[in-house]
Every structure is written in structure tokens, then in C-alpha cells.
Specification:
The complex is a heterodimer of chains A (about 280) and B (about 220).
Chain A (H helix, E strand, L loop, with lengths): L1 E3 L2 E3 L2 H24 L10 H34 L17 H28 L23 E8 L2 E6 L5 E3 L3 E3 L3 E8 L4 E5 L4 E5 L5 E6 L4 E7 L12 E6 L1 H14 L1 H4 L19
Parallel strand pairs in A: 3-7, 6-12
Antiparallel strand pairs in A: 1-2, 3-4, 4-5, 7-10, 8-9, 8-11, 11-12
Chain B lengths: L2 H29 L3 E3 L1 E3 L2 E9 L12 E5 L5 E2 L3 E4 L4 E8 L22 E3 L2 E3 L7 E7 L4 E6 L21 E8 L4 E6 L23 E6 L1
Parallel strand pairs in B: 1-6, 3-7, 6-14
Antiparallel strand pairs in B: 2-3, 3-4, 4-5, 7-12, 8-9, 8-12, 10-11, 13-14
The chains are: A alpha+beta (about 280), B mainly beta (about 220).
């Protein structure tokens, strides 16, 4: 208890701090252990796992800050209410250099630590941010020299996929092998689309005339959702597919079947290229 | 401002917003074209369509468009097509438009048709030279795409106003596909055939009733 004008006052600061510490001690483990495994995107690829880890860390850092605000807010409602006539002004608030220094140090360390960790995740770990890195990627995963190239072609309103190492095969469906570095080369034949393979942790813009590269390395077999994340016209919402991560053996079988099914059109496909400028760009009328 | 005046202002504002919402909904319902049912009965039905280079009537005389033939034999300016579930749908498209070519030659091969083939002017094909395509009939959610061969540029007696009739230059494309469970599936053309629009994909390519529509599987 402190005293103001001879009146004994509870130590509000200690109370608020104690409540906040208890709630934080409960909430943060729950965030990490219970909510964390359900945060987006998934752990299907190394890149997606890095993104989920980032989401867990950011949420775990954000919750104590949010709790501090909420605890102070609720505490104020409960204990600092005053009804009836106007009350006397409270005691003047004085600066506290120790508290100020602590606040500056804590926030600076937090921000700098996040910057270092973010830079490491982006560049050194080579997992990237999941977005395309343009035609000359900076963050390249180990083994990228032998990555399986898969071209993703956006067009109003469908995705198609080309496999240059399998004779330029083009398919309507997407499958990739597990435990293999895959280099997605994302481009468009018309307007701007965005290749969003949710569980793979990839969201890369598909722009006509641009080869936008994004790497993934799937850790498990499974399926993933593909969407267009750029409003691209009437049927934008329908540019959805389900892709699959297969074992290498199953992937080869899938490729063989796709080559057979699409054999008739193979002779008409243009040579594989990083970008296309196909005719007609505009109809004459 | 008095209490009554404030209440009046709020009421008027609310009524105005409500009127706008009703107007939007009614307008949306009014522009949805009428549905056209397939002929025949489950499990085998038939749809008959035609494509025209220019509709020839208001509101867009120069827009390219599909038309559908009703069970009564009348051509209807609609792309909302009704077919039964778990049935074989045979589609005949009378193609009166000239070739534009496919932006992606991949669509020169039919997908999702029975036998993986389609028939052009009596010939069964597994692929169409992409340069000869005028339009496609595609139902992506059902895995169906079929290229439609265009009329030769120098063909005589070309149609210029819908509905075209079979005495005018045309190609005939026929194919069949199977429907599954009931649902509403979009269909579209994959050729950038909207003349005068950027990339050929504006106007009729973005408008239900022209080069896009719904397949209502019931």
C-alpha cells in the first residue's frame, strides 16, 4: 500500500504487472503448443514450415503486448471508475528514467532480433518468403542447381503447367515429387495473376513477360490447394485446383500418364521458354 | 436541429441506401440471361449452340457471342444452359465466326470429352491445329475443353447478324461429355476473342450471356 494525502492506496502497478505476467505465462505456451500447429500455411515444405514458425513467433510476441493493453484497460474499468461529482486532480506523473531505459532497450532488442532472424530466414536459410524472387533469385536453397523446373502459366481463367525436363510437357494438373527442390517459374499469358499454392508456402505473381522464380522442397507427400491471389477478371474466383506431392516413383508414373494423355497436342506447343508473347495479343475484329 | 428533424434525416438516409441495394439486386437479376434447357431426357440430352462474330443487335451490336437453341427450336441469346445430372450431354456447335487462333496452343486438344475426341464437319479429331481455332467451349470445373474450328477468312456468305442460319458459312463441331452430381458450373471461351479490348479479354469475355455462362446441372 502507498499513501496519497494520508490515504492508503493499493499498488495498482504491481497488481497489473502480476495479472499480466500470469496471463502471459498461460497464453504464450498455449499459442506455441496449441494454436501454433494450426497457424498457416502448413509444414508440407521447408518454406511453408519456416513461414509457420514465423507466424508462431510473431503471434507469441504479439500476445503479451495485446494482453498488457487489455489488462490495463479492464483493470482501469474495474478500479479507476468514479461516479458522482467531479474528483480532485491526481498527483503529478513524473518521469522514471529506469523505466524509460528499460522500454527502449526491450523494444530495440525485440525489433533488432526480429530483423536478424527475418534476414536469416529470407537469405541464409534460403527458404525465402514464399513469394517469387523474379528471374534472378537471391535466396537459393541447397541443391537448387539440380532443381526440377516447373513452369506455372496463368491465363484467364485457368492454370497450366509445363515440365521442360520432360519434353516440355504441358498439363492442367500439378504434381511434384517429395524431397526434391522444385523451381516454380511463374508467368502469365495475359493479365497479372498470382500463383498461390497455400500448403506449399508459395504465393508468386504471374506477370506476362516475367519469369518469377519460387523454390519449394516438399518434406512429405500430400495435397495442396492452388488459388489465384490477384483479382484477374470474371472467373478469378474459379482459378482453383488441388495439387499433389507424390513419391518420386508415383511422380514418374504421373508424368508418363500425362505425356500419353497430352501426346496429340505436343507437336503444336511452342518450344519451352521462360516467358511467352503469344499471338493473338489483340483480336483484329 | 430538432429531434424530429434528425429522425427524419436518418430515416431518409436509410431509405435511400435500402433503395440502392434493391436497385442493385434487381438490376443484377434482370441482366442474368434466361436459361435454356437441353433437348431429350435423362440420361441422354442434346445442346445446340452457335457462335457469331457480331451479335448485330443492341446493346452491343459488335460483340462476339454464343447463342443457344431452345427445345422449341428458337435461338436464344443466352449462355445459361440446363442439363440433367449423371447424363451424357451431346453438344453441337454451329461455328459462324472466323479463326483467331489460341493464345495457348494447349487448348487445341479436347479434354473431358467421351473418347477424348471431338467431331469437326464429320471428321473425328484428337487435336485441332491451334491456328484454326475460333473459340473454345470449356467447363473447367468439369475438366471439359473443346476447340471450335473457325470459318475460313475468305469464306463466302459469312454471317454478320445473329442468329445465323445454316445456309451461311459455318463449321459444325460435335462432342459429348458426362455430367455428375448437380451443381452450377461456369463455362467460358479460352480464345481472347473480344475485339477491341485489351488482350482480347474484356467486354463479351467478361459478360455472362456472351462468351461466358453457367452450366446448370440439375
Amino acid at each position: 500500500m502507498t499513501t496519497i494525502a494520508g490515504e492508503r492506496m493499493p499498488r495498482h502497478g504491481i497488481r497489473i504487472l502480476t495479472i499480466w505476467l500470469v496471463l502471459t505465462a498461460i497464453a504464450v505456451p498455449l499459442i506455441v503448443l496449441v494454436l501454433g500447429p494450426h497457424l498457416p500455411p502448413s509444414r508440407l515444405t521447408a518454406e511453408a514450415a519456416s513461414q509457420r514458425d514465423a507466424n508462431i513467433v510473431m503471434t507469441a510476441l504479439l500476445v503479451p503486448i495485446a494482453l498488457l493493453v487489455v489488462v490495463f484497460f479492464v483493470y482501469s474499468f474495474a478500479f479507476f471508475r468514479q461516479s458522482g461529482d467531479a474528483i480532485l486532480d491526481g498527483p503529478p506523473i513524473k518521469g522514471h528514467s529506469g523505466a524509460q531505459l528499460l522500454w527502449i532497450v526491450l523494444t530495440s532488442v525485440t525489433v533488432l532480433a526480429l530483423a536478424v532472424w527475418g534476414s536469416y530466414t529470407l537469405v541464409v536459410s534460403a527458404h525465402g518468403a514464399g513469394g517469387g524472387q523474379g528471374p534472378s533469385p537471391i535466396a537459393q536453397p541447397k541443391g537448387h542447381e539440380h532443381a526440377l523446373p516447373v513452369q506455372v502459366i496463368g491465363q484467364q481463367w485457368e492454370w497450366t503447367f509445363r515440365f521442360p525436363t520432360y519434353g516440355g510437357l504441358e498439363t492442367r494438373d500439378l504434381a511434384i515429387p517429395v524431397h526434391t527442390v522444385v523451381a516454380f517459374h511463374v508467368t502469365s499469358l495475359d493479365v497479372t495473376h498470382s500463383f498461390w499454392a497455400y500448403e506449399l508456402g508459395v504465393k508468386a505473381d504471374a506477370v506476362a513477360g516475367v519469369d518469377n522464380v519460387a523454390y519449394v522442397n516438399a518434406r512429405n507427400t500430400g495435397s495442396f490447394q492452388i488459388r489465384c491471389a490477384e483479382l484477374c477478371g470474371l472467373w478469378h474466383g474459379h482459378m482453383a485446383k488441388t495439387g499433389h506431392v507424390l513419391t518420386m516413383q508415383a511422380f514418374r508414373a504421373w508424368i508418363a500418364l500425362a505425356r500419353k494423355q497430352n501426346a496429340a497436342v505436343a507437336k503444336y506447343l511452342p518450344d519451352y521458354n521462360r516467358v511467352y508473347f503469344p499471338a493473338p495479343l489483340r483480336r483484329a475484329g | 436541429m430538432s429531434r424530429a428533424a434528425r429522425l427524419g434525416a436518418v430515416g431518409a438516409g436509410t431509405a435511400f441506401v435500402a433503395a440502392l441495394i434493391v436497385y442493385y439486386i434487381v438490376s443484377f437479376l434482370m441482366v442474368t440471361p434466361p436459361g435454356v434447357a437441353a433437348t431429350g431426357s435423362k440420361p441422354r440430352v442434346h445442346l445446340t449452340l452457335q457462335t457469331v462474330a457480331s451479335f448485330g443487335h443492341e446493346p452491343h451490336t459488335d460483340w462476339v457471342s454464343y447463342l443457344a437453341r431452345s427445345p422449341g427450336g428458337k435461338w436464344v441469346h443466352s449462355t445459361v444452359l440446363h442439363v440433367p445430372s449423371y447424363s451424357t450431354v451431346t453438344v453441337t456447335v454451329y461455328q459462324f465466326d472466323t479463326a483467331t487462333g489460341l493464345r495457348n496452343p494447349f487448348w487445341g486438344q479436347p479434354h473431358g470429352t467421351i473418347g477424348g475426341t471431338f467431331n469437326v464437319d464429320g471428321k473425328t479429331l484428337k487435336v485441332l491445329d491451334p491456328d484454326l481455332a475460333s473459340h473454345t467451349f470449356a467447363i473447367p470445373d468439369l475438366g471439359v475443353t473443346v476447340p471450335l474450328k473457325g470459318v475460313a477468312d475468305d469464306a463466302k456468305n459469312q454471317c454478320s447478324v445473329a442468329p445465323c442460319n445454316l445456309s451461311e458459312a459455318h463449321t459444325t463441331v460435335t462432342f459429348s461429355f458426362k455430367t455428375g452430381k448437380p451443381g452450377k458450373f461456369r463455362w467460358q471461351c479460352f480464345v481472347p476473342c473480344a475485339a477491341g479490348f485489351p488482350l482480347g479479354f474484356g467486354g463479351p469475355m467478361q459478360s455472362i450471356g456472351w462468351m461466358d455462362g453457367y452450366l446448370m446441372v440439375g
